[in-house]
Fold:
Amino acid sequence: MDILKQVSNLKDFLGDVYCFLEENEEKLENSDEFDDIKTRTWEWQQELAKFLPEI
Structure:
């Protein structure tokens, strides 16, 4: 598997994680680390997107 495919898969996975966090925000927002996890997930997804060619 080439590196761009792996980066794309990881970006998609992080997108799924972010969606899960959004959908379950009410249940998870009591966690001290929730906002940090959500923010870092978004940031990593954006950083990975920089390595992918635009379609």
